[in-house]
Design brief:
9 strands, alpha+beta, 2 helices, 221 residues, 28% strand, 3-stranded antiparallel beta sheet, 6-stranded mixed beta sheet, elongated
C-alpha cells in the first residue's frame, strides 16, 4: 500500500539527498521490517562516522539469510560508483538508494522491487570503511541486521494509527482556533466601530450645544 512506502521512506527522507552535504546531518535510523508482497520496500542501513571531518572510503555489502536457513549469501555490492547484484534471486530487483557521488558512504540503503514471500529472512548490511587519519589509515567494519517479514496486506502499526489520529486532531484544533480568532477580530472591529460612531455622535451633540450657546449670547446682547 502507498502509506507503507511513505512510512518506510520517512526515516531517510532528509538523508537520501544523494549529495555529500546531506552527510553533515547523519542520523542512524532503524529500517522498517515489514514489506508487502508485490510492492517495493526500502531496506535501510545507516552508519555515521564519529568524526565528520575525517575523510573515508567505504564499500557496502548486503547479505541475505532466508527464513529457516543457517548461512548468509551475498546479494549486493556497492563501491562508488558501481553497484552489482550478486544473486540471481534478486536479479533486476535491487536498486541502490544510499549515498551517491562520494566514496564516503554513510547511507547504505537498497530498494527491493516486486517483493515476494521468499524475501522473508535476515538481511545483513556491512560497511567496510577506511578512515584517512594523519598517522595511518584505519579500517573499520560496521554490521547491521534487518529482520524482514513479508505480508499479503500491510498491517497498520499502532504508531501510524496514533499519528493519523493526532494529525486530524491537530487539523480540527487549528480550524477551531482560526474560527475563534475570526470571531474575536470581528467583535473587536465591531466594538471599535460602535465606539467611533458614539464618539462622532457625542462630538456632533457637543458642537450643537456650543452653537446654541453662541446664538443665545448674541440674542441676549
Amino acid at each position: 500500500m502507498a502509506y507503507l512506502k511513505v512510512a518506510s521512506l520517512l526515516g531517510f527522507v532528509v538523508l537520501l539527498l544523494h549529495a555529500p552535504q546531506a552527510l553533515a546531518g547523519c542520523s542512524e535510523v532503524d529500517s522498517m521490517t515489514e514489506a508487502v508482497a508485490g510492492e517495493s520496500f526500502l531496506l535501510g542501513c545507516i552508519s555515521c562516522k564519529l568524526r565528520e571531518e575525517v575523510e573515508a572510503s567505504t564499500s557496502v555489502f548486503w547479505y541475505f539469510k532466508p527464513a529457516g536457513e543457517e548461512e548468509f549469501v551475498q546479494i549486493f555490492l556497492y563501491n562508488n560508483p558501481i553497484s552489482i547484484i550478486l544473486h540471481e534471486d534478486f536479479k533486476d530487483r535491487l536498486e541502490w538508494q544510499g549515498t551517491k557521488g562520494t566514496d564516503d558512504v554513510q547511507i547504505g540503503a537498497i530498494m527491493i522491487h516486486n517483493v515476494t514471500f521468499n524475501d522473508t529472512g535476515t538481511y545483513r548490511c556491512v560497511f567496510e570503511r577506511t578512515l584517512s587519519l594523519p598517522l595511518d589509515d584505519e579500517h573499520v567494519t560496521v554490521t547491521k541486521d534487518v529482520e524482514l517479514s513479508v505480508v499479503a496486506v500491510a498491517n497498520r502499526e499502532l504508531t501510524a494509527v496514533i499519528s493519523e489520529i493526532m494529525m486530524y486532531v491537530l487539523i480540527v484544533t487549528l480550524q477551531l482556533w482560526l474560527i475563534g480568532v475570526l470571531i474575536y477580530c470581528y467583535k473587536k472591529i465591531w466594538a471599535e466601530n460602535e465606539a467611533r460612531e458614539a464618539r462622532k455622535a457625542l462630538k456632533a451633540q457637543n458642537k450643537g450645544v456650543d452653537l446654541k450657546d453662541t446664538c443665545d449670547g448674541v440674542h441676549l446682547e
